[in-house]
Amino acid sequence: MGFFDFLKGPDINQGVKEYRDTDGAVLLDVRTSGEYAEGHIPGSKNLPLQSIDKVERMIENKATPIFVHCLSGARSRQAAAVLQQMGYTNVKNIGGIASYTGKVEK
């Protein structure tokens, strides 16, 4: 582990693997609907950051494992904080799709 490793954001590839290995988990993409339409991780659900307050319609159980991502990791960090404030107890920011090396769908 290097001195500047703390500056690196979460590894989205590892996060997607964890999502796939977690029963009942939700992969939440908080980019805009336009960004989502341009390409998204298969199985992800789109809920733009500006609409995050509507998450309870999509995820009722506050203990559901939620893996949050966006383009670079900034919006997902904000969304994860808001979700935790709303009482969701199993939220993980996995970073930005810009670093994702897996398959995307349109």
List keywords for this structure.
single chain, alpha/beta, four-stranded parallel beta sheet, 16% strand, globular
Please give the structural blueprint.
Blueprint: H1 12-20, E1 26-29, H2 33-38, E2 45-46, H3 55-58, E3 66-70, H4 74-85, E4 91-96
Parallel strand pairs: 1-2, 1-3, 3-4
Report the biggest beta sheet as strand number plus sense, adding barrel if it closes.
Answer: 4 strands, parallel
Shape annotation: globular
Number of strands: 4
Q: Strand-and-helix sequence, N→C?
A: HEHEHEHE
C-alpha end-to-end distance: 37 Å
* Helix content estimate: 25-40%
Which strand order does the major sheet show?
Answer: 2-1-3-4
Rounded mean pLDDT score = 93
Structural class: alpha/beta
Low-confidence stretches: none
Strand content range: 15-25%
Number of helices: 4
Report on this model:
- Strand 1, helix 2 and strand 2 form a beta-alpha-beta unit.
- By secondary structure, the protein is an alpha/beta fold.
- The protein is 29% helix and 16% strand.
- The chain has a 4-stranded parallel β-sheet with strand order 2-1-3-4, sandwiched between helices.
- The model has no long low-confidence stretch (mean pLDDT 93).
